[in-house]
Amino acid sequence: MRAAQVTRLDGPKAVQVTDVPDPLPGAGQVHIDVHAAGVTFPDVLLSRGRYQIKPDPPFVPGSEVAGVVRSAPEDSGLRPGDRVAAFPGFGGFAEQIAADPRVVFPLPDRLSFEAGAGLPMNCLTVHFGLTRRGRLRPGETVLVHGAAGGVGTAGVQLAAALGARVIAVVSSDAKAETARAAGAHETVPADGFRQAVADLTAGRGVDLVLDPVGGDRFTDSLRSLAPEGRLLVVGFTGGEIPTVRVNRLLLNNIDVVGVGWGAYWLPRPEYLREQWQELLPHLEAGRLDPLIGETRPLDEAAEALSALDERRATGKTVLRVR
């Protein structure tokens, strides 16, 4: 089968498409014909050996896919021909994959394979962040950084679906349009967002900040929180890992909350299907529908990763595998 491989740890441009052996599903695994694969920021980090998991090259990246079941264990609840999305962890940039049934989910008919491949990492991460770690309640106000990216658009959509008012932080007019298309009620520019948030909330601030960016925005995000507000630390696409002066947490009784979705579910993989079941009504009703910014053929995997690395991508980037 054809697959995109990381052949050396020199970044996205070193990814090469080649022929590799077909997977041999082990006992209890689901065998999937992959139609589309999502492109994620961890894939960029993996291409440089900078992710917390460090496989030796050559390896096939790609942690989220959508396709059709070729074979499945009898007790998995899956059957040949079923449309599915999956979160295999590795190997998704390929024409076939074998995966644990606990990371394979039914894909509603209304969603394309491209949309399905854009769901697992971003939607399950923000669901964990907003509901379990952030304790989001209907009627609260959520500020989303990086709101035109994959995590950001998923956060905007899910927060709105859960009944929140959503303010999106963006760096350009084009990205503001993307955030509004995802369901943001208001958008504010990254430069000066703190004052803009104060103006939109009559000085009160927001209840929740979803931050996959980090960097120099962090302090102003803390200052943008209402009393008893929560700042969700999702990642650091801005590059710099910020520090916290903990006296700021005392002033308004605010929380800085880590969103380590992977660290949470790895010891309890059954949690992923629980999450999917909670998201299914939103998926079936169209309240969650990944904003696909760009679809590229598998042959352009290196270019797709480069666009994400250089922050040129908006919405979700997906590879079309077949």
Supply the CATH class of the largest domain: Alpha Beta
What gap, in angstroms, lies between the N and C termini?
Answer: 11 Å
Can you count the helices?
11
SSE string: EEEHEEEEHHEHEHEHEHEHEHHEHE
CATH superfamily of the largest domain: Medium-chain alcohol dehydrogenases, catalytic domain
Report what the structure shows:
The chain contains 11 helices and 15 strands. It is of the alpha/beta class and 322 residues long. Helix 3 crosses helix 4. The protein is globular and about 60 Å long. 48% of the residues are buried. The mean pLDDT is 94.
Key descriptive features of the protein:
Quinone Oxidoreductase, Chain A, domain 1, globular, single chain, 6-stranded parallel β-sheet, 7-stranded mixed β-sheet, 322 residues, 11 helices, alpha/beta
Question: What's the quick description here?
Answer:
This protein is α/β, with parallel strands linked by helices and about 325 residues long. The protein has helices at about 40-45, 115, 120-135, 150-160, 175-180, 195-200, 220-225, 245-250, 260-265, 270-285, 300-310, and strands at about 1-5, 15-20, 30-40, 65-70, 85, 95-100, 105, 140-145, 165-170, 185-190, 205-210, 225-235, 255-260, 290-295, 315-320.
